[in-house]
Amino acid sequence: MIVLTILAALFLPYLIIYLYKNAYNKPKNFPPGPPSLPVYGAFWIVLAHGFTDLATAFKKLGEKYKTKIIGLYMGPVPTIVLNDPELIKEMLNREEFDGRMDIIIFRLRSFWKKLGIFFTDGYFWHQQRRFSLRYLRDYGFGRRCEDLESVVATEVKEMIDLRIGGPKYPAEMDIVKGDLVYMPYFFAIPFLNGMLQVFSRSTLPRSEYKALWALTRGTVLFQRSSTDMGGALSLTPWLKDILPNYSGYNDLVKGNQYLLNFFKKLINEAMETHDETYDRHFLDMYITKMKEEMREKDKTTYSVDQLILTCTDYTFPAASAVQFVLTILVERLLLQPEIQDKIHEEIDRVVGRDRLPNLDDRRNMPYLEACIRETMRYDTTVPLSVPHRAMKDTTLAGYDVPEGTMVSANLTMLHMDKDIWGDPENFRPERFLKNGELDLAATVIAIWSRQKIMCW
């Protein structure tokens, strides 16, 4: 016992010295930031500055270290967080930052491979993104399409009937209960059936809306089980084996499985009836391309698993982000009823009360669109965006950025920058209007979507 005590006393100073040196050991000419703790780096220090709000945590850290570009370690990964609008714009428009991180959360959602559109990069991402965007457009994705607009209008009518006439099916009773409406899910159906129309030129009838609501619940469960930077699970994947519930692993798998099962069923049905001489929809076009490449090259980046993840990625915003933006807008109308009055007046003046609005009305309803854009600015959906990866050694703002560094854009700092917005703490849709029309030059919230890699 005495020997162990002596050894511990001799070893302890060396351990303290090692930990101290390691805490401040960073790449040469790396941005300033918090020190590293064992195993998790600065992860717990970040959480201490904003446990449920990482954007605010990095704002505080930026103020503490007097910098707009924060450098730290998240576990073993060198990480940079940008709090400056100009640096965010520069990073998102430079190809060397187009990489994606390879972490457990991205792997578990894609059959433990690197698949999909959101979280892939390089040649694979380029091929898959180019093909999918090119042919999804044929069925209304990103352009006007009469069939798609008709589907969305029909689904909107169904949701209005659900609210006014009440539930017809058991699943609807969870969405509308008398005067209570579960807003996020209430808004989901038109967008999800719209995406199904784009993928397969088919939709689910009202009697099967339960499957679409389950899809939304799975998507939301997946998102809420982690953070913009992946959480502790991404830094120490072994947590899935010892703390599967507490680490969020089980909920991530459960939520993601809703999406995989839904699209696996849809794609299997397309595979069973596929005819290479006639493309009925986007799924057919993808399957045809996959078979052609396998015949001609005996290898391909196209696969059934990749098609499942492609559908999953394009559906993700429709299954969560869009309806939450609209829900937050409804909340704002309750907080600021004068905004509701202005929207109501514009709708009555442009659309009237005898029909539903359509996309032709959009140009004549600038105030409503300004309200949607202000909602996206005021309540940032993904505050730190999707984490990027430096694909080679480079520099940013005079600092060295080693290859493999994770780079995150603090979009909340962009959306709350006083130099840009003047009074960012106020919800004021008029900031997006000029002479009564939508001021496209003011739409700085879209700055991050101009990057070449998709990250909605």
Automatic annotation (TrEMBL):
The chain crosses the membrane at residues 41-58, 180-199. One of its GO terms (cellular component) is endoplasmic reticulum membrane. The keyword Nucleotide-binding does not apply. One of its GO terms (biological process) is xenobiotic metabolic process. It is a peripheral membrane protein. The keyword Nuclease does not apply. It comes from the Eukaryota. Keywords: Endoplasmic reticulum, Heme, Iron, Membrane, Metal-binding, Microsome, Monooxygenase, Oxidoreductase, Transmembrane, Transmembrane helix. May be involved in the metabolism of insect hormones and in the breakdown of synthetic insecticides. This is Cytochrome P450 CYP304F4. It comes from Spodoptera littoralis (Egyptian cotton leafworm).
